[in-house]
Structure formats: C-alpha cells, structure tokens
Amino acid sequence: MQRGKRSSDDSSAAAPALAVLKSSAIGNMTTEQFCLELSKIFQVLTTEVALFRAQNRLLKFLFPNELKTAGSIPLSSGSAVASHTAISRRAELYNNFLQVKHASIFESVKLGHVGDDAPPEKPIQKLMSAPVLDPKGKVLGVIQISRKGYDLVSSGPDFTLDQLHQLERVASLAAQTPFMRDAEHSAK
C-alpha cells in the first residue's frame, strides 16, 4: 500500500505529482496510476482515494479495485455524498465527516489487505468530493479524497480550501483520461 506524507504543510511535495497529471502522459495512464498520483498530491493513502464513473444513472467504482464489484451508487441516492456531488456539480469539503448523514456501506469493505485477519477499515473522518465534468458540463464521474482514522486527530490535518480547489483542477484533468472519456459513450 502506498503511503503519502500526512503533513499538508509541504505543498511542494505534491508539485511533481501534479506535473505528471498535467503532462501529455495523462492520456496513457491507467486508473491505478492516476489514483496513485492523486494520493501523492493530497498526501493520503491510496486506500483514501476513490474514483467513480457515471454510467446508466449510476456511479460505478473505478478505484479502489476492491470496490469495483461491491456495487454502485444510484445518482438519485439521497444519502450518498458522491451522488450529491454529481447532481450538484459542485465540489464539497467535510472536515468532520462522521457528523454528515451518509451511506457508509462501502466503508466496511477491506481495502489493500489480504486474508481474513485484516484489521477493520478505519472510518472516514474527512472528505473532499469533486465532480468530473466534460467541457459541456456533463458529469463523467466523481473523485473523492478522504482521511481515515479512529478519530479526527489520528486521521491527519484538515483539508483546506486550497486543496479543494486543487481537487477541482485535478477533476478537470481526469475528464481528459481514457477511463473517464469512455463514460461519454456509455453514460445515458
């Protein structure tokens, strides 16, 4: 499992990863490579990155791999933050996510662990969510970056408005990737 630094004080650590996303290489990236770069940019674990693609009025997980077969989220869901982000077409930031009414079924899926003796997943404490939009404003998907922990302190620093704006910029880059552009042909 890849681990990024948990300090948000050093934004220069994210610069090389952001440069990779802005380069022409983004067109050849796999979903996994893209999400690894996101974990570096936002200094979170890869298991704290989620990428959804909108397809047939559903949000389907593209990453993490363990959630690809765990189900999907109806865009009409009133209790899923990802669907709210897609419907509103606006980025959202929650630094006290446990206080937000949300569907938590996917949080119980063990990520990045092998075997039955894997520890239970830590709950999401902090979350940023941004829509991936094509140039015409059509929703292609959603990117979520979280910080997990047993409490707010152990999950790391709060997300900032600058990081939320950075996530919005990354989401616009995501719209250029083959794995999100495929959504244009399969979404209804």
Can you walk through the features of this model?
- The protein is an alpha+beta fold.
- Helix content is 27%, strand content 21%.
- The protein contains 5 helices and 6 strands; from the N terminus they run H-H-E-E-E-H-E-E-E-H-H.
- A 6-stranded antiparallel sheet has the order 3-2-1-6-5-4, sandwiched between helices.
- Strand 2 (58-63) and strand 3 (72-74) form a beta hairpin.
- The chain starts with 14 loop residues before the first helix and ends with a helix.
Kindly report the average pLDDT value.
Answer: 80
Described by the principal axes of the CA atoms, the overall outline is globular
Give me the count of strands. Answer: 6
Assign the CATH topology: Beta-Lactamase
Number of domains: 1
Largest sheet: 6 strands, antiparallel
Over the alpha carbons, how many angstroms does the gyration radius reach? Answer: 15 Å
Give the termini distance in whole angstroms.
Answer: 35 Å
Strand content: 15-25%
Largest sheet strand order: 3-2-1-6-5-4
Annotated CATH architecture: 2-Layer Sandwich
Give the SSE string. Answer: HHEEEHEEEHH
- The CATH superfamily title: GAF domain
Structural class: alpha+beta
